[in-house]
Amino acid sequence: MGKEIERKWLINEFPANLVSSNLSSKINQMYLEVSNENDEVRLRKKGDRYFLTVKKGEGLEREETQIEIPFETYNSLSCLQVCKNKIRKTRYEIKDGSNIIELDFYEGNLERLVTAEVEFGSIEESKSYNPPEWFGKEITEEKKYKNKNLARDGIPKN
């Protein structure tokens, strides 16, 4: 398993030109296993590609293994979905110096939610990151904003 070092923020307002000037992709994901509070097994469709991902741990640094799978495998595994809701979102990738901001606009029962995630190569790099002023509250450590919990519980009632 590899390490994923990632911080996440709520977004209330953002510069309009960010969305119009950056590439986007549609993402659909569902969860196959969420029995352990800190672990998850996820299926994701991103554009016309399919992935199986296992994440372990919580917070800033987690273990992650992701493999690309053929559509047939994705389709076969999708019947094992354990959360009633899928996550549907449009993701914009925005260059921010040496980092990439993943700006997610959620759809369906999460449609009012907009978040930003940034992945880092090290803990030190993550701590020294100065987020843009349009970022809102940091939610990296808030379990209720993990995608698996959003799929299960919907938008948190702060």
Which labels suit this protein?
eight-stranded antiparallel beta barrel, alpha+beta, 4 helices, Hypothetical Protein Pfu-838710-001, globular, 158 residues
Layout of strands and helices, then pairs:
Blueprint: E1 2-10, H1 16-20, E2 24-33, E3 39-46, E4 49-56, E5 61-69, H2 71-77, E6 87-96, E7 99-106, E8 114-120, H3 123-128, H4 147-153
Antiparallel strand pairs: 1-5, 1-8, 2-3, 2-6, 3-4, 4-5, 6-7, 7-8
Describe the strand arrangement of the main beta sheet, using strand numbers: 1-5-4-3-2-6-7-8
Which sequence of SSEs, written as H and E, runs from N to C?
A: EHEEEEHEEEHH
Superfamily at the CATH H level? Hypothetical Protein Pfu-838710-001
Question: How many helices?
Answer: 4
Helix content: 10-25%
Mean model confidence by pLDDT: 91
Task: Report the β-strand fraction as a percent range.
Answer: 35-45%
Give the overall form: globular
**Helices and strands: which structural class?**
alpha+beta
CATH level 1 name = Mainly Beta
CATH topology: Hypothetical Protein Pfu-838710-001
CATH architecture call = Beta Barrel
Largest sheet report: 8 strands, antiparallel, barrel
| Radius of gyration, CA atoms, in whole angstroms | 15 Å
Overall tally of domains: 1
Q: What is the tally of beta strands?
A: 8
Distance between the termini: 33 Å
Low-confidence parts: none
